[in-house]
Write a structure and sequence with these properties.
Order of helices and strands: HHHHH
Radius of gyration: 17 Å
Number of domains: 1
Number of strands: 0
Shape: globular
Helix content: over 70%
Distance between the termini: 11 Å
Largest sheet: none
Structural class: mainly alpha
Strand content: under 5%
Number of helices: 5
Length: about 140
């Protein structure tokens, strides 16, 4: 019952709140990309693993937020558009990194970001599907 009420609150959030959350997340990604040097893990393999995982996770969250925003406007195929939004932003993020001293663009990061966005949208769909099944079975 509590979960259902919380979900209704999320689904009825004002459009401005949805846009605000999405734009703030994008700003956070931009600010991280503007850093010339990010902290490093002591082992190179661990550093790579953590940074690539973070890339995928930040774009998974961006895609889910973008879908939430697009849903408010009743955009057909909101998930596909949200994935495209995330990938397009990943491309612009890599272009931005080309302008930051100490950073360099990476096509591999765009692939990881796109995969992260797809996984995020898939996880969201599966969580909602399981939640709806559990509600019906009560």
């Amino acid at each position: 019952m509590i979960l259902r009420d919380r979900w209704r609150a999320v689904e009825s959030a004002p459009v401005a709140m949805r846009w605000g959350a999405t734009i703030l997340w994008m700003l956070g990604i931009f600010l991280l990309s503007a850093q010339p040097h990010l902290p490093q893990a002591p082992e190179p393999w661990l550093d790579t693993l953590l940074k690539k995982t973070a890339h995928g996770l930040e774009y998974a969250i961006l895609a889910v937020l973008a879908r939430w925003t697009l849903q408010a406007h009743e955009v057909p195929h909101a998930g596909r558009w949200a994935w495209g939004w995330a990938v397009l932003y990943a491309l612009t993020d890599e272009a931005h990194q080309a302008l930051v001293p100490g950073r360099h663009p990476s096509g591999g990061d765009v692939l990881i970001d796109g995969l992260g966005a797809a996984i995020g949208l898939w996880v969201r769909r599966e969580i909602l599907r399981a939640w709806r099944v559990s509600i019906r079975s009560r």
